Amino acid sequence: xxxxxxxxxxxETDIGKYRKIFAEHFVTGKIxxxxxxxxxxxxxxxxxxxxxxxxxxxxxxxxxxxxxxxxAKKSGxxxxxxxxxxxxxxxxxxxxxxxxxxxxxxxxxxxxxMDVDIMIPLDDLNxxxxxxxxxxxxxxxxxxTHNPIGEVVQVLGEPGDNETEMHAILVEYGFPLDFPxxxxxETSKIAHKIPAAEIKKRKDFRGVCTFxxxxxxxxDFDDAxxxxxxxxxxxxxxxHIADVTHYVREDTHLNDEAVRRATSVYLVDRVIPMLxxxxxxxxxxxxxxxxxxxxSAVFEMNENAEVVNEWFGRTVIHSTQRFTYQQAxxxxxKKSDVLEEEIHTINTLAQKLRKQRFKSGAxxxxxxxxxxxxxxxxxxxxxxIKEHKExxxxxxxxxxxxxxxxxxxxxxKTANDKSEKKKAFVYRIHDVPKTxxxxxxxxxxNKFGYRVHTSNDSQISKSMNGLMKDVKGKKEQNxxxxxxxxxxxxxxxxxxNIGHYxxxxxxxxxxxxxxxRYPDMMVHRLLQHYLDGxxxxxxxxx
Length: 542
Known about the structure:
Layout: H1 2-6, E1 10-14, E2 17-20, E3 26-33, E4 39-42, E5 50-52, E6 65-70, E7 81-88, E8 93-100, E9 105-109, E10 118-120, E11 133-140, E12 149-157, H2 162-172, H3 181-188, H4 196-200, E13 203-204, E14 209-214, E15 223-229, E16 235-242, H5 244-247, H6 253-261, E17 265-266, E18 271-272, H7 277-283, E19 291-301, E20 307-318, E21 321-324, H8 325-332, H9 340-359, E22 369-374, E23 380-386, H10 390-416, E24 427-429, H11 435-446, H12 457-470, H13 477-487, E25 492-494, H14 518-531
Parallel strand pairs: 13-20, 14-21
Antiparallel strand pairs: 1-2, 3-4, 3-6, 4-5, 6-7, 8-9, 8-11, 9-10, 11-12, 14-15, 15-16, 16-19, 17-18, 19-20, 22-23, 24-25
Helix pairs in contact: 9-10, 11-13
């Protein structure tokens, strides 16, 4: 028996009771802890999650990768087990309230899924005071003790204060409050001035009418539109995207941090950028009256908004005008004459693109967006509805066009030409909605007197669009719009293309927002690789 214990082949299940352990009795996976304290382990080899009772969770925390010992399955009962090893912690730092007594202190975590307080020796409070919000890091947790031991790594401030609570939200969900020192060091070496040698490598659009349209409070302008009327009566429309990957190279700390963050995070009163502000708001931001490097998709279009020619490549631009959405809308409504002909022509083309898209089966989800007005302390002082106007649609349609055409350029050519090897690429895909979800939504909508057809894909999109139109301005609009969106499958990134159901596109990707989305940076690098004649990359690396 001692030999079995030494070889980890025997486990004591109760006093004087033992069980032989077989290798197949161990399962590793990620653990999800419910507010009740019970947990569930997810593993691809098992159809259902494995149940772990609160007393068998041991020192595992929500999101940890753990190994569990499976219990013998009883008839009629679900598969269960107990945690035997913490393979990898999902996080070791937690936000909460500090409680101080005479001999020790605790951090009481904000998260409902962290149901144990962190014990903090008084010497490790690091100036945190009773009642304050702080971040504590777990430094030790013996399986024989109920509470983990930790230390305060940062004091956030008083609970209820706007800055304190915003920082608490970010830390709780794993978003860093600042960039590492090495990232700042690399960023400081990036020059604002563009070398003449770099400009010579690019197509020069500085003499072409170019402008941006963004929200009033935007600082990271990552897209611009250029307009030129051609001698044959067609139009050259350029979609110019900030050339982030020219500045953020692979195998750098800057790129590693962008990978880790994956996206910029937008809170009610601030942006937590994916990239340092010197890059997002200065070097790469397509600010007016400045030369900027771009990766561009340029389309020759006829008056029916049909693309008759396209070009992709690196450019240099000079935006002559910065519009807010309202300012562009004023031009559309003839309340302003700034770049009047250009805006009106591009808007006409955008509306034709939009009409064609919905005719092809795209679903028109335009849910109401509620915004808050805050005072200088961050306290909400008002609520308003963000209006969606034609100026928004103008930008949307040309960003959608660029994203679709980039995906087609890589994917459609190899799909049509069997002699050419398929090129690995990052697509944004959207599957058809699941039947059970759709039928459930149809039954709910029927209670309000609306009929949703679910028999085939084309009927679904037509029926959904009809519903969105019918509920406009009615009291049930908000609930039905939100539920309709939740009924749809989630769009995901994949190297296996299945098209985008919601947009009715056979090929789609994300190319137009590299300042705030890392997948767009991946797409930029892949597109340039294939433009240079490169062979297909390994899809497993993406």
